[in-house]
Amino acid sequence: MTTTTESGTGAATRLHTIGAVCERLRAEFPDISISKIRYLEDQGLLAPKRTRAGYRLFSEADVERLVTILRLQRDEFLPLRVIRDELRSPSADRAKRRAAGIAGVEDEIDMQELCGRAGVSIEFARQLEEYGLLAPRIEAGERLYRESEADIALACAKIARYGVDARHLRAFRTAAGRQSALIEQVVAPGLRSRNLERRKAALADLDMLAGVAQELAQLLLTRDLREVAER
């Protein structure tokens, strides 16, 4: 059930019962349940409104937050503790972008805004671009970057603080390129298909494989570094 209430400014606000939220999200998350949503609330990840009788009412923002949580669980295998920290931090927008998946549409920013968001110098950003870590789109001579490129620049800057320069950070780009090339071989026939349903299925496979590949890369890296620590 969906209800409409009036906000303090007189604007109408659509609110949804927990059952309506389940039905709405079941197509993307077949295992969603009322008990699971209640559990996420108990863990401090959701805070829906309550009626006088104690019934939960979810706003559109609540539903959007729930979708972000579920996608981060499904696609990036993040534990609830990490998801909670992400949503509480200034990087919450980054979490939403990641949760949007491969097919998600991103806004574009210019070099100046990228540097401001990542806290890096223009010189450092140009070095990252030189070694393939940043990939702008050039329009009328202006470099435009997806918002997630600022996240990449920020991550590179964090590693650079330990004395690793942009040239050596290229190793991460090379590894990612090899992984994406392998996955491309798997889904390319479907992506090139003229059949809309087959193409949609291929995009879904691409999104899923991206998440699993990221998990595998993280597990392998952790194993190797654990061996370094034990030497």
From TrEMBL:
Protein name as it appears in the record: MerR family regulatory protein
InterPro entries: DNA-bd_dom_put_sf, MerR-type_HTH_dom, MerR_fam
Domain HTH merR-type: 27-89
Keyword Repressor: no
Range of residues in the leader sequence: none
A GO molecular-function annotation: DNA binding
Entry keyword set: DNA-binding
Matches recorded under SMART domains: HTH_MERR (SM00422)
Protein source organism: Gaiella occulta
Superkingdom of this protein's organism: Bacteria
